Amino acid sequence: MFFDKETYVNRRSELIKKIGSGIIVLPGNSESARNFKANTYFFVQDSSFLYYMGINLPDLVLVLNCETGESILFGNEVSLEHTIWIGPQEPLRSKAYNVGVYKVLSFDKLSDYIKDYLNITKIHFLPPYRISTTLLLSNLVGLSIREVSVNSSKELIDAVVSQREIKSSEEIDELEQAIGITKEMHVKVISKAKPGLKESDLVGALESSAISAGGRTAYPPIVSIQGQILHNINYTNELRRGQLLLGDFGGLSSSGYAGDITRTIPVSGKFSAKQKEIYQIVLDAQKRAIEMLEPNVLYRDVHLAACYKLAEGLKDLGLMKGDVKDAVATGAHALFFPHGLGHMIGLDVHDMESLGENNVGYDTEVLKSEQFGLKSLRLGKRLKEGFTITVEPGIYFIPELFHEWKSNNVECAPFLNFPTIESYLDFGGVRIEDEYVITRSGSNLIGEYIPKEISEIEQIMN
Ligand SMILES: [Mn+2]
């Protein structure tokens, strides 16, 4: 339990009210074996289960009965034999009481409970993303494994998204706590980085920060001198003078909220003139995007405004040419910025992504584009007060993409100055990422400011 009992009681009763009829089944996660059953990965609870139940333990299923209004937790108390291995535990029954669930039944009662309702009313469940959950649901509702996901409840997905996308002030406190931990991790990496170290030296330092703070990293850290590889999680390179180092990582708050921040720094402690130019374009694009954040603005439009800013800067440097709006319309800028400007953040680093990007970041008003670049934008819909999001533009020089576009004479080629771009192919990449909460009239940075101006980064490094 992380918040008051009332928080969980209210969240569940609101969900029951929204769905109105039928049975809602919310399975928590199970332990996941690494190489044999008892040797498991770090346990991560299902975020929807955690949102409505607040218990961070494996092998539990929450059932909300919309017919009776009842919440029931299915799970087993720890046996004496297991206690010998893991020590005495607070009874499950008492944990459930603390979040206002007064009916706890053993796990083997779940199947009969659902069976009684199967042909009478609708059983609502979210799309599973782990095979163990798919199997559980397949057995409970009598569908084949293939049928489970497509039969998940759109009503339930929409109801859960509508609740979880609006963060309460206690959730924003948690996100701030995660940023506090994340700031320490970043400052440690910025102050420690220097030629001769390996990427893994820095990963060791940031992991130790996260663990010392009582948590873990929220996702596999990206710490790379090859920033142009967007999700590079190899840490074998040695840092050399003249290179840029991209660090995209964050910690978890004590109740499981994620931090997700990116900084890009010069290994030598000083940006070169060329690096400064590209870095400043990315920073200006981020600031342009942040200025626009307020309720009712389409995040797709914020993304596009950042793209215009990037394209303008790249045109000034002679890397792009022609009309900036036309260039962005054809997707030319995506050669340098192939991903989206940001995503929601909360209990998941890409919040609720398991419920489907289209169900979380888009709606009937804004449909996802299929254009290269724009199709990777995870959030396109109108912003609302209480949304918590990331703003993370970048510029990358991806040799493979460059060669492909150059040799295939792509439609947007007239906007690209290929010979000049070619002279940047060993540049790497720059990304700058911060988190914002949408307020009534604008937005606020979540948590403490983490240095990002060129002079601030150089000052910490020297
Ligand atoms: Mn991110």
TrEMBL record:
Gene3D superfamilies: Creatinase/methionine aminopeptidase superfamily, Creatinase/prolidase N-terminal domain
GO molecular function ontology, one term from the record: aminopeptidase activity
Keywords, comma-separated and alphabetical: Aminopeptidase, Hydrolase, Manganese, Metal-binding, Metalloprotease, Protease
Pfam families with a match to the protein in the record: AMP_N, Peptidase_M24
Alphabetical list of SMART domains matching this protein: AMP_N
Cofactor(s) recorded in Swiss-Prot or TrEMBL: Mn(2+)
Spans traversing the lipid bilayer: none
Catalytic activity: Release of any N-terminal amino acid, including proline, that is linked to proline, even from a dipeptide or tripeptide
Top EC class for this record: hydrolase
Domain of life: Bacteria
Ranges for domain Aminopeptidase P N-terminal: 3-135
Matches recorded under PROSITE patterns: PROLINE_PEPTIDASE
Its EC number(s): 3.4.11.9
Family under the similarity heading: Belongs to the peptidase M24B family.
Protein name: Xaa-Pro aminopeptidase
Native source species: Flagellimonas aurea
